[in-house]
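REQUEST FORM: STRUCTURE PREDICTION
Request ID: SP-0412
Submitted by: Lab K.M.
Chain count: 1
Length (residues): 379
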Amino acid sequence: MNFQFTEEHLNVQQAARDFAQTELLPGVIERDEHQKFPMEQMLKLGELGFLGMMVDPKYGGSGMDSVSYVLAMEEFSKIDASASVVVSVNNSLVCWGLETFANEEQKQKYLVPMASGKCWGAFLLSEPEAGSDATSQRTTAEDKGDYYLLNGTKNWITNGSTAKYYIVIAQTDVEKKHKGINAFIVEKDSPGIVVGNKENKLGIRGSDTHSIMFTDVKVPKENRIGEDGFGFKFAMKTLAGGRIGIASQALGIASGAYELALAYSKQRKAFGTEIMNHQAIQFKLADMATNIEAARLLCLKAAYLKDSHGDYALASSMAKLYASQVAMDTTIEAVQIHGGYGFVKEYHVERLMRDAKITQIYEGTSEVQKIVISREILK
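STATUS: Completed
RESULT:
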C-alpha cells in the first residue's frame, strides 16, 4: 500500500489551494451573509478544468482520478463550502452519471459543455415526500410516445437556478415502484419549468438551493438515460460516488476549522502564555488532528476503490458518515478555542460550523449511511 501522492496529485492539490486562497477567500464572508452565488469563481473553476475533473478529455474533461478530486474538494471546502458543493454536484452527480450511463449522442450534447466548464448541471432527486426514501417519487413522467410529460416538484436542489441542465429522477410506472423510475436529461429553459425562491439556509448560504416545479414539461424520448426503469439504479450508483465528494467537503470544512484554531492557539494568550501551552487546548487540537487524518484516509480509500473499479459503496458511506461527524465536532471545538471571537463572523469558524451541518444531511443523511453500511456488512 502506497501512501505517497504522485506529482500530479500534488500539483492538483496546490492549484486548488492557490485558487481557494486567491479567488474564494476574498469576499467569502460577504457572499455567505448576502447568500450570493460565487458565479465569477465558478466560471474560473470551469476554465481551470475543475468542473469536469474525472471526465475523459475526449468529452471535454480533465481526465483526473478520484484521488485528485478528493484533494481538490478538501482545499476548496476549507475556504468556501458553497463553492465546493457546485464542484461536487457537477463532477459526481452530473458528469459521472452521464459519462458512465448516457449514450454517445447524450454525451456529446450535454456532457461536453458541462465537463469543459462552460456550464454546470443539477441533480433532481429529493421531493417534499421523497428525501431519504428515494423510492417514493411523486414526480411523474408520462410516456406519450415520442416524448415524456413531466409533472411534479423537486426540492433542495443545488444549482437550481444557475444550472443549464437538470438530471431528473421521476416515476414512469407507479405499479412497478422503484423499477418504474427513470432518469431524464431536462433543459432548464424548457417550457413549464418554474424555479422557486432561493432557500434561506443555515449554512452553505452562497449555494444556489431551490425548489423546481414541472408542469406538463415535454422531455424528448431520446433524453431518457438508459433502459426503461433504470432510473433508481442510476440514482443509487451515482449517489455512491457523490458521497465521496461530500465526505471530502466535510473533510475540508474540518481541516479548515482546525487550521484556523491551531493558528489562533499560537497567537492568543491567557494566564501569561499562548493558549497552545495549556493542556486543555493541546488535547482538543490532538483530537481534531487525529480525527481529521482518519477521515482523510477513509475518503482516499473510497476514491482509490472507485479508481481501481472496486466496490466502493461501503467505503463511500463510511467516509461520509465519519467525515461529516468529524466536521461537526471539529468546527464546534474550533469555535470553542476561539472563545468569544469564534462567535464573530470575521474569524470564519462560525461559518464553517454552520456549513458543517449540511454534510450530515444531503446526499443521504447519516442515518441513511448507517442503513447502507449495516446492509453491506450483513450480506
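NOTES: The radius of gyration is 21 Å.
Reviewed by: T.R.
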